[in-house]
Amino acid sequence: MTDSVPSDAAATGADLPGPTDPAGWLTLPDVAERLELSISKVHQLIRDRELIAVRRDGVRRVPADLVANQTVRKHLPGVLNLLADAGYDDEEAVRWLYEPDPTLAGGTPAVALGGDQAREVKRRAQALGF
Question: Locate the DNA-binding protein Rv2175c wHTH domain: which residues (predicted)?
Fold first, then answer.
């Protein structure tokens, strides 16, 4: 069974719980379409910690800005593994990625992953394990 909702657009974070949630969400079928992959490959990306999905409104969703164009953010898998090594579950990892941080370009670690501060985000995630 796959989780699905109409895939016309990313859901907005306004109707979903969490003060540090991303602004937009994609369902797994939406991610598969955007990345031009099968849904089973998307599930594999999540199992391999190359992508993260959490339940919102009973449906597994992926933060939309972590799927850039037709790829997953370059440094996301490394950060997800570092957060897992530090004991973070998926919900906590999403919370950390979207925690406001004015010292990072874009204001959150998730946004900074797409720019020049990706290494800084990885360094901070690594420091959590100590």
Answer: 25-66
Answer whether residue 67 shows pLDDT above 50. Answer: yes
Angle between helix 28-35 and 39-47 (nearest 10): 100
12 backbone φψ class: left, alpha, beta (φ>0; ψ -120 to 50): beta
Instruction: Tell me the helix, strand and coil percentages in the chain, rounded to 5.
Output: 40, 15, 45
Q: What does the pLDDT look like over 85-127, one tens digit per residue?
A: 999 999 999 999 999 999 998 899 999 998 889 999 999 999 9
Question: Which residue has tokens 């953010």?
Answer: 73
Give the C-alpha separation, 26 to 34, whole Å: 9
Residues in the chain: 130
- The token duo for 4 is 């699905």
In the chain, domain spans: 20-127
